[in-house]
Amino acid sequence: MSPTGSASWWPWQSSIIAHKDEVIALKDKLIAEKETQLKDLKTREDKLIAEKDKLIAEKDKFIQEKDIRIAEKETQLKDLKSQLLQQEMQSLQELSRVKVIANNRALIENAMQQYKSDLSLSKGLEMFVNEHLLTVGRDKTTLSMYGREVCNKLRNFGFAAKEDFVQKELKNLMHEISKPLHRPHVSGKIYTGYVVGGEPPLAEALAIVISKLQECKFVKNLDVLLVDGEGKCKCVLSNGDIVEYGEA
Fold first, then answer.
1. Three-class DSSP category at 157
2. Is 2 in a helix, a strand, or coil?
3. Mean pLDDT within 232-238
4. Which of 8, 113, 178, 224 would disulfide-bridge 237, Cβ 3.0–4.6 Å?
5. pLDDT tens, 50-63?
6. Same-domain check for residues 226 and 189
7. At CB < 8 A and 24+ separation, what contacts does 168-171 make?
8. In what helix (H) or strand (E) does residue 55 lie, and over which residues does it extend?
9. Do 110 and 42 share a structural domain?
10. Does residue 232 form part of some domain?
């Protein structure tokens, strides 16, 4: 045929078609390879995520078990502290039946550990006094109603310190009971018992605190003798009440 005839274009057209088919096949191959790669990546990603989730779950389990063990240890420690405090209180009770124990601090220290075991003695006592024994007003701090009632009862036994002085002594009580000689002077006529006291207003402040501790059940089954500055027992603090010495 003539070079310009249609038959002369067939080989060229066939070549183009063949090349096009090769391109399409190559494209399909590349797409398939890409899809395979993406699938492999997705598989590896899923595996990594699964491993990460497993590690997180193991970590969470470890933390949970650790928290449980810590909670158990804290409970055991709390129980041991409680038992120790009970033993200390029982020792004070038993010793006071056979001898004089004169100490303005020991009983309060034991009670404060029951009241707020996570605080120091000074912080615990400050919180207890502020919560139960003082009333904070806009202009001044005064004794609470409970504190005034105790002071009124104490006047019947010869303790007559002014309430303002007692209030100041309560705020400063930690300092007073922490002095090197924090045991009160005791008369030779007292042969047994747990004794606290001293010169006014210290005696009144101690009486208010210990009576409230008895009322709150931080001090139980222990009568406390209150002595004046001369060491004479004036009254007894018993179950939150104040009674005459010899009637407790």
1. coil
2. coil
3. 94
4. 224
5. 999 999 989 988 99
6. yes
7. 168/201, 169/201, 169/202, 169/204, 169/205, 170/129, 170/133, 170/134, 170/143, 170/205, 170/208, 170/209, 171/129, 171/134, 171/141
8. helix 10-96
9. no
10. yes
Looking at the fold, whether 114 and 218 belong to one and the same domain comes out as yes
How confident is the model over 117-128, as pLDDT tens digits?
Answer: 889 999 999 999
Domain total for the chain? Answer: 2
User: Closest Cα to residue 208, out of 136, 153, 140, 135?
Assistant: 153
Q: Looking up tokens 């699938």, which residue turns up? A: 39
Reported as a single tens digit per residue, the pLDDT across 76-110 is 888 788 788 888 889 888 999 999 999 999 999 99
Any domain includes 195: yes
Helices 106-115 and 202-215: crossing angle in degrees, nearest 10, is 40
Q: What are the tokens at 91?
A: 């020792």
Helix (H) or strand (E) holding 197: strand 193-197
3-state secondary structure of 190: coil
- The answer to whether the predicted template modeling score (pTM) of the entire model surpasses 0.85 is no
Residue 115 lies in a domain: yes
**Tokens standing for residue 141:** 């701090």
Give residue for tokens 């089954």: 221
Tokens at 69, concatenated? 């063990």
Q: Are 178 and 105 in contact (CB under 8 A)?
A: yes
Q: Are strands 134-136 and 141-143 parallel, antiparallel or unpaired?
A: antiparallel
Q: What range defines the domain where residue 151 resides?
A: 97-244
List Cβ neighbours of 205 (8 Å cut-off, separation of 6 or more). Answer: 166, 169, 170, 173, 176
> 227 with 196: CB under 8 angstroms?
yes
| E strand or H helix that includes residue 28 | helix 10-96
DSSP H or E segment with residue 225 = strand 224-227
Give the rounded distance of the alpha carbon of 87 from its chain centre: 22
